[in-house]
Amino acid sequence: xxxxxxxxxxxxxxxxxxxxxxxxxxxxxxxxxxxxxxxxxxxxxxxxxxxxxxxxxxxxxxxxxxxxxxxxxxxxxxxxxxxxxxxxxxxxxxxxxxxxxxxxxxxxxxxxxxxxxxxxxxxxxx
Length: 126
Hints:
- The protein has 126 residues and is an alpha+beta fold.
- The protein has one domain: 2-Layer Sandwich (GTP Cyclohydrolase I, domain 2), CATH 3.30.1130.
- 30% of the residues lie in helices and 33% in strands.
- It has 4 helices and 4 strands; from the N terminus they run βαβαααββ.
- α3 runs antiparallel to α4 (73-85).
- The protein is elongated, with a radius of gyration of 16 Å.
């Protein structure tokens, strides 16, 4: 049975952007992550080692987004997606069937009123 694990609105203060002031001052970014796994083993065994630990997922995303600033949200989102798709640990190694990452930049330097700018990337195992 396929299970979806979602993490929404993970806040990270980081220094991504194409402008010097973005790299110097930083700003809040928000990350949404969804992973789909084969959850049969975790459901039957009630064992964290058989699934994706969402606390560890959050830590991985935050630590990576804080480091190695990039110009584009597209680059950051793709990098985070690659990390998630290759997440390993315990009995859960390789159980991620597909994943989706959205990176939000609500304070992007746009001269007009807006609520959010985001980039979404997704991948699926073949």
